[in-house]
Amino acid sequence: MVKTIHGTIVVPGERLDSRVEGKHPYTLEVGGAKIATVVGLLSRRDDKHVFINIKGVYVPEVGHVVIGLIESIGVTSWHVDINAPYQAILSAQDFLGRPFNPAVDDLARYLRPGDYIKARVTLFDKTRNPVLSVQGEGLGRIVNGLVVDISPSKIARVIGKRRSMANMIEEKTGCTLFPAVNGRVHIECPNRELEMIAVMALKVIEAEAHTVGLTERVARFIEERVGRGV
Amino acid sequence: MGHKAKVTLIDERGLRHDGRRFDELRPISMQIGVLANASGSALVEYGRTKVLAAVYGPREPSQKFMVLPDRAILRVRYHMAPFSTSERKNPAPSRREIELSKVIREALEDIVLSSEYPRTVIDIFIEVLQADGGTRVAGVTAASLALADAGVPMKGLVAGVAVGKVGGVLLLDVDEIEDSMGEADMPVAGAPDLGLVTLFQLNGVLSEEEVERGFSMAWKAIEKIVAMEKEVLRKKFEAAGEEV
Question: How many domains does chain A have?
């Protein structure tokens, strides 16, 4: 079985052709030349040369749906770790959908440190911390299943083109997957064994995201283990 | 009671006590991703000098007063483990360690794109596990690799090397014995892709001509070491794509 790299591995400081497209700050103009600022992959996509970062830091954007981990409880809000440089805030009023009175209500009744939530980023710029909302379908406390941490830059590969990878994993394991853009994946499986297989499959994708033929290899990986047990 | 053997630093063939030529580096090894809990990490060895670097962040610090509104702060801690030297080193930060923490921070500050992460800190821990000369420059190299492993955007990779003057001869990558018996020690670090020198110190006395010659030797070595860093980073990801 042959695995090959998708393109060329590029390291920080290396020059890229000016036509290469890449996301800021992973490509940068320095002294008239375009350079890579993180480890990434130079690849060809739809007749365009693109630079895809393999390494990077997740920075929230308004509209992102993220999986957050409750870290602490404030007076009228929870402090949430969304795997970003900045801690996010979820207000009690937003969670409850009504005005909140700290004298009467106890926030720990609803969400405690260690709880996971699905939430949307409603406010963020670099002068203030991200603000989250759980008002929306499918958002709120995660009650069942497991949350897996993977590198945020690999989430796109977990989803795949037109959701091909995620659909394949769901079909072969019977699990449901929710990959969030901040590098966390919520999985719900019929049993513990399938849950472990799904987690291992995600870790394989994380390690080999920049290689070709990955969807087929992950499919075979899952089939071998579902057949004989983990 | 034992007697210290007399060490010949440069023999009649011009070879050093460990068999190296005057412009030869010690064997250098590099590994990345050695600490699972860190955002990025690297273990770098220059001969018997062994340095571990760990990067955490960018993240919000617990003490908010220290943040800057427009960029991240690099918080560097250079520390020598008590077992890193032949005599136990007191674990408390010495004046030298405080100075080298500052010097290493300044060697990396202009290279990291800190303006992308305002109001945060990037913690860089450099722990010397075994000291045999050139610990600060090995520390800069390890920190650069650890930052790349953490995915912190940088304008280029940084590396360092020390040039010493021993017995009137300029020697590249001096070790502990050479440094202790030499007349001068000149650590240099920089980013060759950018043509930037980010660390330049001199301990001892060198003429202007010796500084120029020593710097030229150091810069050539820095280019080699940065090429090694690139290779280590590439190999880590190419390994996932090897033919099976």
Answer: 3
